[in-house]
Amino acid sequence: MRAFLPVGPNAIAPAEVDEVRQGPGEVVIEVAAYSVNRGETFQVENPPADWRPGKDVAGRVVATIDGGPAIGSRVLAHVPHSGWAERVAAPLAQVAVLPDEISFQQAAALPLAGLTAVRLLRSAGAVIGRRILLTGASGGVGHYVTELAAAAGACVTAVVSSPPRGERLRELGAETIVYDVADAPGRYDVVLESVGGDSLPIALSKLLPRGRLIWFGEASRKPIELDFFTLFDGPENATIEHFHYTDGDDAADLATLVRLVATGRLHPEIGRQEDWSRTPEVLDDLRRRRIRGNAVLTVIEQERPPLDPRTVVTRYVEAVAAGDRATMRASFAPDVVWTFPGDLPLSGEWKGRDTVVDEFLGAVAGRVFAPGARVTITLANVIADGDLVFAEWTAAATSRSGAPYRNSCGGVFTVRDGAIVAVREYLDTDHVRRTLFESMP
Question: Above pLDDT 90, what percent of the chain?
């Protein structure tokens, strides 16, 4: 597959790399879009050996695990690395399902910047009625912080480098826009500081007594100098807190970001959108501060529709035949209902993905077939009509009594949005009763 690799200081290039391998606890995502963050420009300056860039991705699941989203699901993820590629392995704990109303490009702009913004404001505590000073506000984090803080009732002063960079922040709720931190008027309850260098001491001086400065970046790449005695000029007993955005539950916070965007309460600000072949140029423009908001690269121009119902059912039956429980589980919607007519001990309705897979298809089979016996499934026919699919298969195994079990089975499957939502199964119930249940106590 294709991916971008570091080829020297401040340089990346496309290359053919080994196909991604799915590790424990991971799903594999076919990447439709990814974003490039300013912090990643720092990593590319002196890349570690065997490291590949890319943290923020959106796309479709092509391999899953028990408890993971179904194959074909639209997701976004905040991966540890290697996201600037056609496919990437993502820990399930760093993945969230994406509704159709959010594009892959919007989703790709969410993870790192959105997680940082949510966790900054969580660290700041209740902000209603409080004055917040935000430096370096024209990047992706700044846009999210401004919109979320203003919506929560804060009075936000945003520091940007030029009027065009401040216009959108004002639309998102910033009360005041300044172009130099020294010009920020009045005193503040909280300072969110990401520039470092000369900016942080000046921003610190703007705090009220016992105010808090949360230090979440050093975009200037310059260390700060502080004088203990200058704090007596105003921000006495102020607190400086070091902030690292990774402190939190990624899956839960990504789901929160998705919900906020889906309900119109958060708006990803995409300052540049390009084909992923232009990643090196976009990286350079980001480094030179030529991009406002997030930069997003598109890998797949057109979103692929979910798998058609016939393919979903065929894949499911083949997974049963292969003993592939992860694909079996991923084929079902969470609220699937499996109906088994008749008056056998296993007849009735089995509701929910876990119940169907673990109890009906798993535990019941374990009680009726000989220990260690293989159940051979052979798909005979599949007929589809819209959302309804009829599948016919044969099943062969040895019962606990030693009797041979040979049955012809049929199922009417209802498939929506690439997942099985209902099944009604039919087979020779008399054969099941004689071979599997008559000898049972």
Answer: 71
Q: Which residue has the tokens 């404001």?
A: 121
Q: In the 8-state DSSP scheme, what is residue 311? A: H
CB-CB contact of 348 with 437 (8 Å): no
Mind listing the pLDDT tens digit for each residue in 13-41? 999 999 999 999 999 999 999 999 988 88
Under the banding of pLDDT at 50, 70 and 90, the label for residue 148 is very high
Q: What are phi and psi of 202, to 5 degrees?
A: -70, -45
Q: For the chain, what is the radius of gyration of the CA atoms?
A: 28
Q: Which residues contact 428 (CB under 8 A, 6 or more apart)?
A: 407, 408
Identify whether the C-beta of residue 314 lies closer than 8 Å to the C-beta of residue 420: no
Report residue 248 as tokens: 């939190």
- Look up residue 77 and give its two tokens: 């993820």
Phi, psi of 310, deg, nearest 5: -60, -45
254 SS3 class: helix
- Going by C-alpha positions, the residue among 310, 312, 300, 328 that lies closest to residue 419 is 312
**CA 144/CA 327 separation, integer angstroms:** 37
Residue 5 in contact with residue 52, Cβ under 8 Å? yes
CA distance 209 to 214: 15
Question: Tokens standing for 57?
Answer: 């991705």
Helix H or strand E segment including 353 = helix 353-354
Strand partners, 91: 26
184-208: b (≥16 Cβ within 10 Å) or e: beeebbbbbbbbbeebbbbbbbbbb
Among 157, 164, 163, which Cα is nearest to 181's? Answer: 157
Q: Which two tokens stand for residue 235?
A: 């921000």
Alpha carbons within 13 angstroms on the beta-carbon side of residue 350 total 23
Let me know: does 125 contact 192? Beta carbons within 8 Å: no
**Spatial CA neighbour of 227 closest among 246, 206, 245, 204:** 204
The pTM for the full model equals 0.76
Measured CA distances, 226 to 104, 122, 159 (Å): 43, 26, 21
Cβ–Cβ under 8 Å, residues 158 and 185: no
The closest of 285, 291, 296, 312 to 421, measured between CA atoms, is 312
Query: CB–CB of 376/352 below 8 Å?
Result: no
Residue 192 CB partners (closer than 8 Å, separation 6+): 120, 124, 132, 133, 134, 135, 145, 214, 216
Among all chains, which residue has been given the structure tokens 């080994």? Answer: 18
Q: Which helix (H) or strand (E) holds 76?
A: strand 74-78
Mean pLDDT of 325-350: 88
